[in-house]
Every structure is written in structure tokens, then in C-alpha cells.
Amino acid sequence: MPMTRTIRILFFALAVLTMTTAASAQIRITVGFGPPAIPVYEQPVCPGDGYLWTPGYWAWDADFDDYYWVPGTWVLAPEVGFLWTPPWWGWDGGVFLFHEGFWGPHIGFYGGINYGFGYFGEGFVGGRWDGGHFFYNRDVMNVNVVNIHNVYNEHVTIVNSTHVSYNGGEGGINARPRAEDEVAARDRHIGPVAAQNEHFQAARGNPELRASANRGRPPIAATGRPGDFHGSVVPAREAGGAYHPPANRGGAQPRPESQPRPENGAARGENAAPRTAIHPKELPPMERPAAPSTGNAKQDQKYQQQQQKLFDKQNQERQKLQQKQEQEHANLARQNASEAQKQQVEQRHQQQTQQLQQRHATQVQSMQSHQAPHHK
User: Fold this and answer.
1) What is the reported pLDDT for 260?
2) Among 55, 43, 112, 58, which Cα is nearest to 241's?
3) Would you list the domain boundaries of the chain?
4) How far apart are CA 161 and CA 184, in angstroms?
5) Distances in Å between the alpha carbon of 214 and those of 96, 211, 235?
6) Does 264 have pLDDT greater than 80?
7) What does the buried/exposed string (b/e) look like for 186-201 if buried means 16 or more CB atoms within 10 Å of the residue's CB?
8) Across the chain, what does the average pLDDT equal?
9) Per-residue pLDDT at 78 exceeds 80
């Protein structure tokens, strides 16, 4: 699969990242109509201790000019003490902005959106970390106490009963970041883990999850585990509200690569070509090399260990650079940096990411050349 195509699959086409104090990243796309309401669905039972709930949300597919539902699912936390802040849509200056979700020690601002199951617009009341274990609030979480014993019961009064899925604009949620949300924005963050990215891609490739097909009532609203669309699947009981997109939005066939996107579904001033990755998390997912086969079992084992060592090292370098760049984003937000300063930093980030990608590609090629069978 071409790299440009993969980058677009990993996230929205024609995206431009900007920063605010309320979130670690935004993806600016010009979509003239908002996403459908959050559908009504039940939460599948937690599959095991340590799994945290990540709510479902509507994402945008520029290839089909359509929203699609990314089902809610249970995900293992990447670190003890980390919680998931969901992504959210916000209306600002005539465009919808997608604010990416993240893992961190505190819950940040997520637009005031009522995602349910502990995420009722601000903060999180579905559970808490204590002594290295996550304790689930059974009042809002579907947990089997036969298998999971670290639970408690704390009644939650839900004030926000709306299913609106975006902040600001006509009909949107009117909410602003609290002081604790601003503090959370300056924490160390981790983006979606590999299982979440795979889940995201599986949802994007399922035509039944497009809003034009399900009218806001996805047949797979939640799953028991990431990417498992055939096991513990929960359909939406009903749509969260009427869905009235503009005419001719969303379709059965993707737009050809050479055909430009309508202005309503593409970033202003851009053509149909996707942008170069600015940050490591926008790069194509790392692929494990094929197992070596030299005919010598001992040699193959040695080569495989070398491959795994390089894979782990490169993955660690990606994460380290991503964290460094996110910290610089937080510093810009804290300093109320100008747009020119932000653009300068983003250009440097893009250069860093490209250099990292090129260096990793060279390392892989060098290893493959060294490990290739040499015939006399």
C-alpha cells in the first residue's frame, strides 16, 4: 500500500494540526455539517482486569465524504495510572475541528460531550486507580464481579442527557475547559495505542458503519475487545437523534485519487494529495519484517532476534519523539504562542519526523541486505 494512502487511512485526509490550551492536538478539516448524534447502546461486559472503557465516536472519511462510527471498546491501559480522554468535535470559525483522544494521568477536556459510561461531559466517574489497580464503579460500568473483584458502587446523577456529538456551533454543546482540564492538557500524554489504531482502521473499512448507511444507528456500536467485530458485538438500540446531512453526502464508492474533493469536504487551499506526516503518530504503522529463512535454524533465530531488537528500538524512538513534540505543543499553549511561532514549530516537527522515518528505513534496508542469502 503506498505510504501516502496509508497516512490518509491512519487519520483524516488533508489535515492540518494546530494547538489550543484545551487539547493536545486538533485536526482541521472543512466539513460543512456536523456528525450524527451519539447513538444509544449498551456497554459490553469488561473482558478482564486492567481494561479501560474507550467510548465510541464519529470519525470522518474524506475518501467517502462521510462520517463513520468507531465502536466503543475495552482497551488495556498503556501505563498504570493512565486514563483515556476521548476525542471530540468542535466548531470554530466556520469549520469542524477534530480533537484527538489521548492517554494521560488525568482526564482532559472532551468538549462536554456525553459519551456515557462514566464520560458524561466532564471528568470521568467510571472508575479510579488505587494501589496499582483500576477499580470499576459498578453504577456505570458493566463488570462481572465473579471475575473482577476490584469494584465499588458510587451513585452517579447524570445532568447532561443530550446525545449531541460536537461542541459549539448551531445546536452544539456549550462547554469550555475547566481549570483541571487545562492542567490535564499539560500532562505527559500518549496517543492511541496500537490496538486502538487497528480498531480505528477496521471501523473505517466497514461500509455498514458509515453514517450514510446506518443513519446514525450503527449495527456495531460497541465491541468487547478492539477490532473484534464478530465476537462480543453490541448494536445501537437507536440513533441518538435525527440525522439530516446535506444532499449527496456520502456514497458507496470512494473518490478516485485523481478527482479533487469538493470544497465542503476538503481542507481549504489544498488539493487531493494527502499531507506529509508532521508527527510520528501519523506515520504508517510499523510492520514486523518477515521471518528469515536461510535454511539454517540457528542463523534464522539469530536474525529474528536482531529484527525484533531493531523493531523495538525504532518503536521506542517514535514514541520518544512523539512525547517530545507533544511537550513542545503544551509549552506553546502555555505561552500563548503566536500562529507564526506555532507554524515554525510544526515545520520543525515535520522535519524531525521525516528524518526519523528516513533513518529507520535505512536501518531496515541495511539489516535486510546483511541478512539476505549470499550466493557464491
Assistant:
1) 45
2) 58
3) 3-275, 295-371
4) 25
5) 22, 5, 11
6) no
7) bbebbbbbebbbebbb
8) 81
9) yes
